[in-house]
Amino acid sequence: MTTPQSTSAPPSSPRVGLFVTCLVDAMRPSVGFAALKLLRDAGCRVEVPEAQTCCGQPAFNSGDTADTAVLARRFIETFEGYDYVVGPSGSCVGMTRAHYPEALADDPAWAERARRLGERTYELMSFLVDVMHFTPGDVKLDASFTYHDSCSGLRELGVFAQPRTLLDKVSGLTLKPLEGNDVCCGFGGTFCVKYSSISNAVVTEKTAAIERSGAQLLLGGDLGCLMNMSGKLKRQGSKVRAFHAAEILAGMGKGPAIGEED
Asked: Which domain holds residue 48?
């Protein structure tokens, strides 16, 4: 994802480093551009540091704390000069806030730097609502949607009401509750690779609940979860289309859905 590094926001506006995340950069750049637009609309000066890399979550989940620490130090050096760090993923942001101090526990100085940066690092929906008190502009989409709450965003960061508050401002958009909205979709990062049969069973239950909701759209705040669920829906021949919530809020809900890029 390549984007201009400056905006027309006043110098007094918060300077935000956009943490794009690996999946967004490689698989769904439109989520990154949607996040960029929303942050600018909220009045932020946004930069996308080219030095950013993976947050280290796959390594950490696999027990490779040493390589995680290397990536954590790089992340901290890249982003600690900003007023805030914001990412469109509860999973990746949860990694930086909840687990960097653990990965750097044998180095108190770096662990403290991680803790301080974590206090200024936010998931996108949470930042827009809780910090910027943002209300989206004139966005319209005549559709029904259901919402999946990702495990990390919900449990590590407390992201629940924020996306619903924002999506409620989209004219024509109607929420249909999702049974088990807070239950894992089966992705779980490396879990879906290590335990594929269990992962498939979990996502099969999830897609059945999505279909029962009667919604036209599946929305969420984590691309990994959305790719997992949309892939299963597509294989089942479902007509439900999946988008990151940021895409809808940025007015991109009429473009290709996740899995339709080809």
From this structure: 15-130
